[in-house]
Amino acid sequence: MQTTVRAPITFDGTGLHSGRPARLTIRPAGADHGVRFRRTDISLGDTIVPARWDYVERSPLCTRIVNDAGVAVQTIEHVMAALAGCGVYNALIDIDGPEVPILDGSAAPFVRGILDCGLRRLQAPVRAIEILTAVEVQTATGWARLSPGRGLSMGFHIAFDDAAIGTQVKQLDLSNGTFVRELSDSRTFCRQSDVDAMHAQGLALGGTLENAVVVDGDRILSPGGLRHSDEAVRHKMLDAVGDLALAGCPIIGHYEGHKAGHSMTNLLLHALFETEGATRLVEVDAGTRARLPGVNIQPEEIPAVA
């Protein structure tokens, strides 16, 4: 059955790019509501922004959604990944500004809040998007693909010149709480040269060595080093889980990304829904549900950093 959170859950922090205080509250919602953001700092007009692929304004640095009235919310990928990874299908998310708080740069604090609160089952079945044929998009820098699968699985490949990151490859089946155990605590990362360039453009003003992994050549500048030796590719997978959640339903299929990012995953969703016969909407039975993220999660599986 579909789910929502049992009670409101509030998170306070700082916007990664704006550097301004940000408060976000995940509220319960009814069946078939989906995930929607509501800008509480705007009093007139349409303040609701659906968390859906066709509301995305593509950006290489984060996922940004905009409604027809021009109201926007950005850096939504980590909270979206937490909701998808915990199996939450319906929520109204109040936010007091244009950017989700970055917290520690991962999805783990959101996961902790959701699981501590608990989920409520709703009287409506889960529907999922089953991938029937492979769909792929390519750019000059990489590619992304969705192909048929039994649940949701993912493969990712990254390559950076900085020796602290280098080339990393990972494959995961995302059933049975894998997202929570393996991906949720992996933080966003960047190179020191990127930080300098973003600051020059008035971006990443809320970024610190505590909410991002910053590397410079072969050095990890963030105190305490890495949470995982391959934390960078794990975070890319975390982002992809959040960006795929904008499909509006769980996906039954296999995602592969080669040097992919937010924009490419959104391009892939556009291609998927524009390709006739590539998908079908199915009602999820107990067997299929067990192969999707968010099943059989125990609170003790949440990484200690949360």
UniProtKB/TrEMBL annotation:
It catalyses: a UDP-3-O-[(3R)-3-hydroxyacyl]-N-acetyl-alpha-D-glucosamine + H2O = a UDP-3-O-[(3R)-3-hydroxyacyl]-alpha-D-glucosamine + acetate. SUPFAM superfamilies: Ribosomal protein S5 domain 2-like. One of its GO terms (molecular function) is UDP-3-O-acyl-N-acetylglucosamine deacetylase activity. One of its GO terms (biological process) is lipid A biosynthetic process. The active site is at 262 (proton donor). Pathway: Glycolipid biosynthesis; lipid IV(A) biosynthesis; lipid IV(A) from (3R)-3-hydroxytetradecanoyl-[acyl-carrier-protein] and UDP-N-acetyl-alpha-D-glucosamine: step 2/6. Zn(2+) binds at residues 78, 235, 239. Its cofactor is Zn(2+). Keywords: Hydrolase, Lipid A biosynthesis, Lipid biosynthesis, Lipid metabolism, Metal-binding, Zinc. It holds the Pfam family LpxC. One of its GO terms (cellular component) is membrane. The keyword Lipid biosynthesis applies. It comes from the Bacteria. Its EC number is 3.5.1.108. Catalyzes the hydrolysis of UDP-3-O-myristoyl-N-acetylglucosamine to form UDP-3-O-myristoylglucosamine and acetate, the committed step in lipid A biosynthesis. Belongs to the LpxC family. This is UDP-3-O-acyl-N-acetylglucosamine deacetylase. It comes from Roseivivax marinus. The lineage of its organism: Bacteria, Pseudomonadati, Pseudomonadota, Alphaproteobacteria, Rhodobacterales. The gene is lpxC.
